[in-house]
Q: What sequence folds into this?
């Protein structure tokens, strides 16, 4: 049975939300930063098991450094959230825990994955230090550029959503 | 009548009305922007409409969504959409603002790029400063740590020189003393360079006799030049002031670096030091120090790099130094 699930991808601007979606949906990447305004919506059908397929409707929202300002209308009917930050730009994760509280309040009782993107830009030790120093609990560390962990991230969310009613 | 025409041109041609039933099948569409066949599923038109299922289930009677990108057969539309719950289904009122949003995108693109670029530059600068601080701290500590044993070695060498030595031992003693002096100069140069780099080098102005200073240089370098079979000429304008206020030590360091360099790369001929008065105003004076030699010279393409740290144009030269002299100068 095909179930449609709306997933919103949130985060500050320039963190790579569009690139993550593009990597997941079309397995491509471009180094050219093209700003997203408003919302871009794409879809990928994911087969969880022979009798369990979900249509992931991915809402790529315009990045903002004020998460509280995201319009409620964009979030209506959301089944899952991916919150992305850029591991190489502190301004995108300095207030991460506050940002996540805002997101959880706006979209309560919804699976949420926290993703540190652009791991190709930092070395492993620096990455660990950044996460520890900023008390960040991250679900996935990805690179849209190399494709690292991108499919794992969306597969994980798809599994969570497939198990929901 | 005229306003009606304008409304038709600017409003009606940019707005499409679609009515869909509760299962998402299109009941009616005025096809102003794009074709949607009656009886087709709106969910299949674009993934955006597939999300409308959740809106049927929600309590909201009216929803406004702005700046939604729809890539359709007819092209890319950037729309504002009003969704109204009506008896038997949903009324979708779609306004095409593609042109407006494309202009807005350009502004946002420029703004975001600028913010990101600034942030990354700040991060990069902080990293570079930290690296530079570490390097300078290391060099300063390292130089200081080496100075103490070197001072002991020099003191012991002096004591040793006063003991009874045969000819061969005396020769070895001279080499040892020369090596000690070179090592001491190298350490001082490294320390100076590190202090210049970190902006901690302080110029200490004091009164000194410039002519005495030049006489000392003349005496020293005439002896050094003679050892190498060269001649050294020092000359200065008669109108340069005798007494100056300035950092004699640093002036000495710069000129000796230049003169040593000139001697090092001159195999035959003359090394010249000339000092001219550029200008004198009130109690300030500008002097021009010129060092010339008849050595191998420097080709014009090498001019940009000669003052770089650890840069030596003739690295295979046996008398080459540490590459810090000109950088300090």
A:
């Amino acid at each position: 049975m095909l179930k449609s699930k709306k997933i919103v991808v949130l985060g500050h601007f320039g963190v790579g939300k569009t690139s993550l979606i593009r990597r997941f949906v079309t397995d491509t990447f471009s180094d050219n930063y093209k700003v997203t305004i408003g919302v871009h919506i794409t879809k990928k059908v994911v087969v969880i098991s022979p009798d369990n397929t979900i249509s992931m409707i991915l809402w790529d929202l315009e990045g903002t450094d004020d998460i509280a300002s995201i319009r409620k209308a964009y979030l209506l009917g959301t089944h899952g959230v991916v919150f992305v930050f850029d591991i190489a730009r502190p301004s995108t994760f300095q207030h991460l825990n506050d940002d996540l509280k805002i997101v959880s309040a706006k979209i309560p009782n919804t699976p949420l994955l926290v993703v540190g993107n652009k791991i190709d830009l930092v070395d492993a030790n620096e990455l660990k230090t950044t996460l520890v120093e900023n008390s960040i609990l991250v679900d996935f560390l990805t690179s849209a550029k190399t494709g690292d962990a991108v499919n794992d991230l969306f597969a994980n969310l798809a599994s969570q959503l497939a198990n929901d009613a | 009548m005229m306003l009606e025409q304008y409304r038709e041109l600017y409003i009606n041609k940019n707005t499409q009305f679609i009515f869909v039933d509760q299962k998402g099948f299109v009941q009616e569409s005025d096809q102003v922007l794009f074709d949607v066949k009656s009886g087709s599923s709106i969910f299949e038109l674009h993934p955006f409409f597939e999300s409308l299922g959740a809106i049927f289930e929600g309590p909201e009677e009216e929803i406004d969504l702005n700046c939604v990108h729809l890539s359709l057969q007819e092209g890319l539309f950037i729309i504002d959409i009003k969704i109204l719950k009506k008896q038997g289904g949903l009324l979708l009122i779609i306004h095409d603002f593609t042109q407006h949003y494309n202009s807005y995108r350009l502004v946002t693109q420029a703004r975001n790029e600028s913010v990101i670029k600034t942030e990354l530059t700040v991060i990069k600068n902080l990293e570079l400063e930290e690296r530079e601080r570490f390097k300078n701290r290391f060099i300063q500590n390292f130089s200081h740590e080496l100075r103490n044993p070197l001072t002991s070695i020099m003191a012991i060498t002096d004591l040793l020189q006063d003991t009874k030595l045969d000819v061969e031992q005396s020769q070895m003693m001279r080499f040892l003393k020369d090596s000690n002096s070179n090592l001491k100069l190298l350490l001082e140069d490294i320390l100076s360079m590190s202090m210049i780099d970190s902006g901690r080098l302080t110029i200490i102005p004091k009164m000194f006799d410039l002519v005495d200073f030049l006489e000392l240089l003349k005496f020293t370098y005439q002896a050094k030049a003679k050892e190498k079979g060269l001649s050294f000429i020092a000359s200065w304008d008669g109108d340069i002031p005798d007494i100056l206020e300035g950092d004699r030590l640093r002036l000495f360091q710069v000129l000796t670096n230049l003169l040593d360099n000139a001697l090092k790369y001159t195999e035959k001929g003359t090394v010249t030091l000339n000092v001219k008065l550029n200008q004198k105003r009130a109690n300030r004076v500008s002097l021009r120090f010129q060092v010339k030699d008849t050595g191998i010279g420097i080709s014009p393409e090498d001019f940009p790099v000669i003052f770089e740290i650890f840069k030596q144009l003739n690295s295979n030269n046996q008398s080459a130094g540490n590459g810090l002299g000109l950088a300090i100068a």
